[in-house]
Specification:
The structure holds two protein chains of two kinds. By secondary structure, chain A is mainly alpha-helical. Chain A has ten helices and no strands. Chain A has one domain: MetI-like (MetI-like fold). In chain A, helix 8 runs antiparallel to helix 10. The longest helix of chain A is centred in the C-terminal third of the chain and has 38 residues. Chain A starts with 5 loop residues before the first helix and ends in a 9-residue tail after the last helix. Chain B folds into two domains: 174 residues, 3-Layer(aba) Sandwich (Rossmann fold); 73 residues, no CATH class. A six-stranded mixed sheet of chain B has the order 6-7-8-3-9-10, with helices on both faces. A four-stranded antiparallel sheet of chain B has the order 2-1-4-5, with helices on one face. In chain B, helix 5 links the parallel strand 7 and strand 8. In chain B, helix 2 crosses helix 3 and helix 2 runs parallel beside helix 4. Chain B is globular and about 60 Å long. The C terminus of chain B is likely disordered. Classes of the chains: A mainly alpha, B alpha/beta. At the A-B interface, helix 7 and helix 8 of A face strand 6, helix 2 and helix 4 of B.
Chain lengths: 268, 258
Amino acid sequence: MTANPGRRGALLLGAAPLLVLALGYVIAAAARHADNPADKILPLPGAMAAAMAGLLFEPDQLSGQYLFWADTLASLWRLGMGLGIATLSALCVGLVIGSLPPVRATLGALVTAIAVIPPIALLPILFIVFGLGETAKVALIVIGVAPFMIRDVAGHIGALPREQVVKALTLGANSWGVILRVALPQALPRLFEALRLSLGPAWVFLISAEAIAADVGLGYRIFLVRRYLAMDVIIPYVAWIALLAVLMDLALSHGSRRLFGWAHMGSR
Amino acid sequence: MLVLKNLWVEYGEKVVLERISLDIVEKSFVSIIGPSGAGKSSLLRVILGQEQPTRGTITLDGEPLPRECGPDRGVVFQRYSVFPHLTVLGNTLLGLEFAASPLTARLFGGTRRAAIAEAEAMLEQVGLADSRNLYPAQMSGGMQQRLAIAQALIKRPRILLLDEPFGALDPGIRGDMHGLITRLWHAHGLTIIMVTHDIKEAFGLGTRVLTLDKRRHDPHAPQRYGAGVVYDLELTRKQAGEVPAPEPGITIDTKVNT
C-alpha cells in the first residue's frame, strides 16, 4: 500500500499496459492478415500510416484543405469555446451561488434541474433553435458540462468553514471583499479540478454533435469513414483524440500546481 | 466597558442562555468555562455579532453594539482562523487591505510598502518574522494560531475574542502561547474574552473567570432552561498568577424542577 515506485518507475509502469495493448493489437492484426490479406477490420500499422498520410499531407481534392488538420482545428475550437464558456459561467454563477445564500435559494434548484437532463436529449432542441452550425455544438458542450461545474464550485465555496467568513468580516471586509479575497481564490483550484473532470464528458458531447450534423471535425470524420469500414482512419483518429485529451488533462493539472501551489500542500 | 443586560439566546424551543447580565471592565481578561453545551461559544458568537440575542441588549461604552461582525472585535477560533490560500504575510496584510480599498481589497505602491512594514512588525511580535512566505499548510498548529492572533491584532481591535484558541495544541506549545497572549494583552491594552475547556488555563490567564451552567433542569424537557452564569470570580491581577487551579468541580445544579 505504501510502496512508492518513484517518478521514473511510475512512468514505466504506466506505459507497460499501453505497450501490451499495442502489441496485442499488432499480433491480432497480423493473424487476421495471415488468413485474409484484404482484411479491413484490424488494419496493420503500415496501412494506417498510409491512410493517415493522405489526410495529413495531401490537400483534399474537393475542398483543398488538409483534412486531418482542418478536423482537429474545428474540433478544438468547438471544445475550447464550449469549455471556456462553461468555465467562465461556473466561476461567476458558482461563486455567487456558493457565497450568497439568497442566490443559492433562487438558482440552486434551476441548476440542479438542468444538470439532471441528459444533454444529448436536448440536442434536437439545440439544432432547431440554433440551426446546424457551430452554435448548437458549442451550446451542447456548455449545457453538458456547465451545470456540473457550477454545482461543484458552488458546493466547494458553500462548504468553506464559517469561521473564515466571520474572520474576514472582523478584519473589516464587506460581502464583496469576502467573495473577492476569500471565496474566489479558493474557488479557482477547484474550478481547475472540475474542468479536468469535465474534459471527458465534453469530448463525448463534441463527438456526438459532430456525428449528427457537421461537415468537418474529428467526430464527423470518424462517423463518415465508418461507412467504408475505414478502420485505418478511425483507429488513428481515436488515438489522436486520446492524446489530445491526455495533453489537456496534463496541462490543467500542471497549471493548477503552478498557479495554486498552496492547494496541493495539504496532501502530504 | 462592555455591558450585557438580561441576555437570552434561544434556538427555536431550545433555550441556550438565559438571564446573562455582565459588566466587563476595560482591559480585563475574562475566561469563560463550563461543561459542553452550556452556551459558552454561543455567548462568544453573540458578543462577536455573528448571532443575535433573542432578548436583551449589549452595549459598548453605552452605545448599542453593531448587529454584525466588525473590526472593533477581533476573533481567533480554535481552527480555520487563517486563510489557506495566503502566505503568512498575506494573511496579516488582509485586514489592512480590506480597510484601504473596499473595491479591490488590495494595496499598491507606497501604501502597500507601509502596510507590509506594519504587518512585519506585528509578525515580529508573535514570533513569525522568519516565516513570512510560508502557507498555513506548511505550518504547525501553534504557528497557525500565532498567525491568527497577529492577523486579528493588526486591526487594533479593542476586544479580542478567543474561542478555545489553544485547545488543539500540545501542552508545551500551549505554555508558549499563554506567555504570548499575556504579553500581547499588556502591550496592546486589550480586553480579552476567552472560552476554554482548560480550567487551569482559565485561572492562569484570566482576571475574571465566569462559569456557565444550567441553574435549573427539567428532566422531561431538558431544552426548556438555558445556562446562566453560576460562578463569577474576580481575580485581582496579583492573584491571577498565584491562585492554584481548583479541582474541575463544576457541579450541575441538582435542584430539579418537577
